[in-house]
Each structure stands twice: as structure tokens, then as C-alpha cells.
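Re: the 234-residue chain
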Amino acid sequence: MPAVLSVALVFLVRETRRVLPRAERRAVFARVGELPGRYWRVTTALVLFGLVNFPDALLLLRLNEIGFSVVEVILAYVTYNAVYAVVSYPAGLLGDRIPRPAVFGVGLVFFAIGYTGLGLTTDTVTAWLLIGVYGVFTGCTDGVGKAWISSLVGSELQASAQGVFQGVSGFAVLAAGLWAGFLWGADGRLPLLISGIVGAVFAVGLLVIGLRAYRTAVSTASSAKGGAPTPTTE
């Protein structure tokens, strides 16, 4: 009864409607055109990689096909998440000290090992280890990738940059799941091997870019310490 009376009292309240100034409306994608070219280059590269990084559900299906029971599949996924959680923080620290493309490239090395290994092995113990390896990949790339994208734009464009990146990346993973599902066949080896090989190619490319960026940073720091003019970078 008290609750009913409380609600009824609301109808006795009278408020004066306030007229607020009408805010200027902007198109939803108005700021997307302001994102710099370097942002689009990195986003394009990471999204292209996303086309071979299919959903984890297919990896769990592969474990089941190797011989994991339902309980073992669940425990394997717990293992993956535990490794991911443990690796994320040191990977983030490393990304603050060396070029982020290098850290992301290291993560892709683990991706290539994990996917290729799961495509080749039929041994359950090896598969357990490879799921842990895959967790290292996620730990090295998830937070570092977001930080990398964030570093490419100013503070006024952070939301637009992350929104576009996350949205397009989501569509890439969806596309990866579709083509991998169509090619899965009886055991899923083919899509795993394809993704592992492509991931290795991306890893080499990013490691080369990261090494060049590191050498440039070291050279710039040495020049500045020696009193020579510091070269400008984009």
C-alpha cells in the first residue's frame, strides 16, 4: 500500500518545463573525414588481418575434434583467458617502451604458431599448449592495438577513431567466421593453416616496421643527446 501511494503522489507534482537552447546537430559520421591518413593505413592493415582471425568458437570446435571432452574444452578456454589476462599487462608496458607495431608483430608470431599448430596436431597435450600460445597472442595485441590506434589521432578524435576501428574490426571477424565455416569441412585444418600462414606474413611485416621505427627512435635520441638537430617525424 505505501508503494502504491508513493507512485500516486507523483501525479500531484507540477513542474515548469524549461526550454533549453537547441544544440547544433552534426551528422553521425561528420568527424570520420577528419581522421588522418596514418590512422586509415594502420586500421586497414589491422582489419585485413582480422579477416583471418576467426571467432574463438571455431578453435574450441577444433579442440573437440582433436579429442577434447566438453569439460576439457571449457577448461582449455579458461586456460586461454588466464594466459591472456596474465600477458596483457606486461605487453602493455612493453608497448610503452618499444614501437607498438613490434609488440603487435610479436603477438602475431604467437597467432601463427597457435593456428598452424592447431591445424596440424592431433595430440591433446600439444593442443593444450597451443591454446596457451594463442592466449599470448591476444594478450600482446588486444590492448596494444587499441593504444596504437589511439596514438594516431588527437584527443578530440579518440571516440571516432576507436568507434570506426572497433566497428570495422567486428565486421572483419564476422567475415572471417563465414569463410572459415564454409571451408571447415570434417576437421577444420584448412582454415587454420590458411590463417596461420597469413598471420605469419603479417607478423614479419609488422616486425620489420617496428624494427625500423625503433632504429629511428634510437637514432633521434642519439642525435638529440649529442646536440645535433633532431629530425622531425610525422
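Residues 52-218 form a domain with the Growth Hormone; Chain: A; fold (CATH 1.20.1250.20).
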